[in-house]
Specification:
Elements: H1 9-13, E1 22-23, E2 26-27, E3 29-30, H2 41-53, H3 64-84, E4 92-95, H4 98-113, E5 119-123, H5 132-141, E6 144-148, H6 158-163, E7 169-175, H7 187-196, E8 200-204, H8 216-219, E9 223-227, E10 238-242, H9 244-247, E11 260-263, E12 268-270, H10 284-299, H11 302-320, E13 327-328, E14 338-342, H12 348-356, E15 360-361, E16 363-365, H13 370-376, E17 381-385, H14 392-409
Parallel strand pairs: 3-15, 5-6, 5-7, 7-8, 8-9
Antiparallel strand pairs: 1-2, 4-10, 9-10, 11-12, 13-14, 14-17, 16-17
Helix pairs in contact: 2-10, 3-10, 4-5, 11-14, 12-14
Length: about 400
């Protein structure tokens, strides 16, 4: 596809059927994109076509439907390879999402190569899926989890991060874009610093893939994880990129069909990459849908799309801060289109319920980042997260809804 020469949000919105929904009698204002993005008709149609016309398992059949499904499945892998600028398609492993991708690295790479006394470095702003798998690994092999602090703006404190790197650091696992703060981390510098002490580096790219172009070779990260549903694709499908030299040395994460070359009761020989890590019947429709989502994203003028979201972020910040008492959580110099906030005297869950009555969908809670909430000494936030199809008019609707809710508690 050729990128569109300009970015017209009105045209973009026509691609997303969900935006025609009414909630409590009002047009839907969908501002929960950090949780999951809406799906364009191009993705919906690709999944529907698979189930209508090409339903089959992949890799194992010689009949027409299986061959067609396999071609689309592997073509999607190639699309994702180019989307991430991976060296080869064998470095693209399909998983259920970012969470499973990180767990795969923890259990396959971590249990094989880390030992008692080794250290894993993460940050205070990590999602639970980039904390708990490493805690489990530490319990299993005796390594130690080290946490780098953040400041009141929600930024990584660079000097403190560097202080925590040492010869004991064997793995660094850092979020690219914080899901609860919007902070964009300097992942290039983080990767270079980790490699300088001999550590491998994993980047949690769940929020980043829909906001910035990814070049895993340029970044030189060792692992990169993301979820399809954050990129206008279906749920239940994700990707782990890993450098071949590492993936070749890692044992399989799960055993079963398709990840084997030969099986006897005495010994099993494992399949080649990437299939060694893809046991069982895969999410065929999900992979095809993710391939269509990649096509859709690459059909856009991504620079214009980012400019649009940056304008929305600036406008939303300006308008929300006009509400007396409102406090933004996450004010990093470099951040993406996430607006998390608290209002004194109103629990975020109550606020979320009230703005929903106005047709506005936001996320409330700790966003699977409880250590961040503890740092800011708050139980939760209300979070409006923006995407390519959102408008200033929708932000105005959000602001009116928040103001209306506030009058109930004043």
């Amino acid at each position: 596809m050729n990128p569109k020469t300009n970015f017209d949000v009105r045209t973009i919105r026509k691609d997303f059927p969900n935006l025609n929904v009414h909630v409590h009698g009002k047009p839907l204002v969908y501002l929960d994109n950090a949780a999951t993005t809406l799906k364009p008709r191009q993705v919906i149609d690709a999944i529907s076509q698979h189930y209508r016309e090409e339903t089959s398992n992949v890799h194992r059949g010689v009949h027409f439907l299986s061959e067609q499904a396999t071609k689309k499945y592997e073509k999607a892998r190639e699309k994702i390879q180019h989307f991430l600028n991976a060296k080869e398609s064998a470095e693209i492993i399909f998983t259920r999402g970012t969470t499973e991708s990180i767990n795969l690295v923890a259990q396959s790479y971590g249990r094989t190569f880390l030992k008692s006394g080794d250290e894993i470095l993460i940050s205070r702003m990590e999602h639970h899926s980039n904390i708990v798998p490493w805690q489990m690994l530490c319990e299993q092999v005796g390594c130690r989890l080290v946490v780098s602090p953040i400041n009141e703006k929600g930024e990584l404190i660079w000097d403190e991060f560097k202080k925590r790197l040492s010869a004991k650091t064997k793995l660094v696992s850092i979020v690219y874009v914080s899901n609860s703060l919007g902070t964009i981390n300097p992942v290039g510098d983080i990767i270079d610093a980790g490699h300088h002490v001999g550590a491998k580096v994993l980047i949690d790219g769940a929020q980043a893939v829909s906001h910035t172009e990814i070049d895993v070779q340029g970044l030189n990260c060792d692992f990169f994880a993301f979820s399809g549903h954050k990129l206008f694709g279906p749920t239940g499908i994700g990707v782990l990129y890993g450098k071949r030299e590492l993936l070749d040395k890692m044992p399989p994460y799960q055993g079963g069909g398709d990840m084997i070359a030969t099986v006897t009761f005495e010994k099993t020989l494992y399949n080649v990459l990437p299939y060694k890590f893809e046991a069982g019947t895969p999410h065929v429709a999900g992979v095809i849908g993710l391939g269509a989502a990649v096509d859709y994203v690459q059909s856009l003028d991504r620079d214009k799309a980012e400019e649009h979201k940056e304008q929305l972020l600036a406008y939303g910040t300006q308008e929300l801060l006009k509400i007396p008492g409102l406090r933004l959580i996450g004010t990093a110099k470099f951040k993406t289109a996430i607006l998390a906030f608290v209002l004194p005297g109103i629990h975020p869950h109550d606020l979320g319920t009230l703005v929903d009555r106005e047709g506005v969908a936001i996320r409330t809670g700790h966003h699977c980042t409880q250590p961040i909430m503890q740092f800011f000494n708050i139980p939760a936030t209300s979070r409006a997260s923006l995407s390519i199809y959102n408008t200033q008019k929708e932000i105005d609707t959000l602001v009116r809804a928040v103001k209306k809710a506030k009058t109930i508690f004043d």
